[in-house]
């Protein structure tokens, strides 16, 4: 087995060759082995990935994939709730949005899928 470089994004060591690129099975990141990891990491640090591995953009619509309890609210955000016009932000909760019945809130991208 060839000695391949670990993923520059998630540091996974199980990378594989995909044509001329290297690919990561955990975060689905692909990169060229000829580029330096610092250049590649600078290009990919602002990507936000949903639960299915799709890249999210500002203004996208997403669907919540599991019930999410909300602090201070009597009920949870139910799975299947569609959220329109998301905004990507820095931090742990990397999606800022407004949900009908709850108002403005932050979501983690791992609990949504692109609609």
Terminal CA distance reads 39 Å
Number of strands: 11
Please tell me the overall pLDDT.
86
The portion of residues forming beta strands comes to: 25-35%
How many separate helices?
1
Radius of gyration: 17 Å
Helix content: under 10%
Rough outline: elongated
In spatial order, strands of the major sheet run: 1-2-3
Most strands sheet: 3 strands, antiparallel
Could you state the order of secondary-structure elements as H and E? Answer: EEEHEEEEEEEE
Supply the helix-strand structural class: mainly beta
Unreliable segments (pLDDT under 50, ≥5 consecutive)? none
What does this structure look like?
The mean pLDDT is 86. This protein has 115 residues and is mostly beta strands. The protein contains one helix and eleven strands, in the order E-E-E-H-E-E-E-E-E-E-E-E. Strand 2 (21-23) and strand 3 (30-31) form a beta hairpin. It has a three-stranded antiparallel beta sheet, with no helix packed on it. Strands 7-6-11 form a three-stranded antiparallel beta sheet, with no helix packed on it.
């Amino acid at each position: 087995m060839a000695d391949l470089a670990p993923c520059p994004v998630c540091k996974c060591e199980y990378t594989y060759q995909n044509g001329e690129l290297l690919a990561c099975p955990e975060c689905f990141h692909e990169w060229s082995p000829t580029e330096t990891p610092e250049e590649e990491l600078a290009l990919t640090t602002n990507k936000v990935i949903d639960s299915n591995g799709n890249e999210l953009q500002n203004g996208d619509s997403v669907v919540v994939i599991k019930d999410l309890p909300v602090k201070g609210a009597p009920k949870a955000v139910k799975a299947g709730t569609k959220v329109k016009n998301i905004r990507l932000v820095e931090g742990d909760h990397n999606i800022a949005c407004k949900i009908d019945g709850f108002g403005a809130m932050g979501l983690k991208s791992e609990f949504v899928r692109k609609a």
